[in-house]
Amino acid sequence: MTEDSVASASKVKSSNPRIVNLSWAVSLFGTAVGAGILFLPINAGASGVWPLLIVTLLIAPMTYFSHRALARFVCKSPRQGEDITVVAEDYFGTGVGRAITWLYFLAIYPIVLIYGVGITNTVESLLENQIGVAAPPRWILSGVLIGLMMLVMILGETLMLIVTQALVYPLILALFGISLYLIPSWDLSGLQGDTSFSPGGFLLAVWLIIPVLVFAFNHSPAISQFSLAMQRQHGERSAQEASKTLIITTGLLVVFTMFFVWSCVLALGMDGLSDAREANIPVLSHLANVFDAPVISYMGPAIAIAAIFSSFFGHYLGAAEGAAGIARGLMPEKAEKWGPKRLAAGVAVFMFLTTWGVAVVNPSILGLIESLSGPVIASILYIMPMIAIYKVEALKPFRKAYSNYFVIVMGVIAIGGIFLGFFN
User: Can you tell me where the transmembrane regions are (predicted)?
Assistant: First the structure.
């Protein structure tokens, strides 16, 4: 842990525990609600309202129980104060632990790169189309924006929590406001049923939607640092307090995100969603074109920027954690010699340069990244903690929970749905 992190931790420790828990609940919400939410209604609503209704009922327990298990994975480690990469080696041995560290990094790092592309494109479009000024050269604009996002992370956990809350609360209000705005345009005819309904087609549609929502509701990149914060704040009660906080995060995600998804689906209908998919544009951009509403055209970029910034923080935490773990595994002597502070600085330089380079190149790989990251995320979030619960003595008290079987089944379904999507 760096000196800055220690100072930050001491500040957080002295705060009101309830405020700390709420701050983390909001930060985890921000990690989950990234740029993907702008495409989520298009993907999740593609098969109609009835499959969407089923996954809406499933996603709350799926999100809560899986993230709770991952938090327990870290909170209950005999080696308190160590992140998920170190804990995995303790639980499974050096070889398997290092493999998990690599998978953890490869699941999260590409998403960080995409956020560098996303924030550059969004601000560039805002400057040229809404404000009416010429955007700076792409290499300058992307460098400044990525530098600002990383600066918040480098300056410490306390500042990250403050900035995240400053972004997420308006984001929640904006999502809620647009959801309400669309209500007069809802078309409920889709609720009357589909004459071409078949049980097999219905189950297939549900199966394909589940991975989309798993990815959209995923806040696992920040769970390790969140669990360490719970250890510092609550000691032996860290797992229980983490569970309480995750209930709040899950509630926020289900209420505000799914209301937004449902409102967009009911307002656009299957034809509108198909048009948006074919045009390969975010749902807010399509809504602006359909409704010709200035409020949406201006709020769209603002929501996208807030979503990318807030989600970048959580994903950067996870990616930097994984990169540091890989460095310790590949060159343990050098990592030990550098110390935590210099190692964190080296990781930060690597993250900045690579994210900046990808943002300048501007690849169109969001769907590919989600497809590649999805199976790994589902494996780490749903399967790995369950294996640990039944293998590791420290997690023995959690073995009798019926929710374990639910998480395992839904994890297998999610992973299967991801691979099924390749051939659909």
Answer: 21-42, 48-66, 99-119, 139-159, 166-184, 204-224, 245-268, 295-318, 343-366, 372-390, 402-423
Q: What is the dotted CATH code of the domain comprising 3-10+18-422?
A: 1.10.4160.10
pLDDT in tens, 389-413: 999 998 999 998 899 999 999 999 9
Domain extent listing, the chain:
3-10+18-422
- Express each pLDDT in 124-181 by its tens digit: 877 887 777 888 999 999 999 999 988 887 777 677 777 777 777 888 888 888 899 8
- Cβ-based neighbour number of residue 89 at 10 Å: 21
Torsional sign, CA 304, 305, 306, 309: positive
CA distance 156 to 272: 43
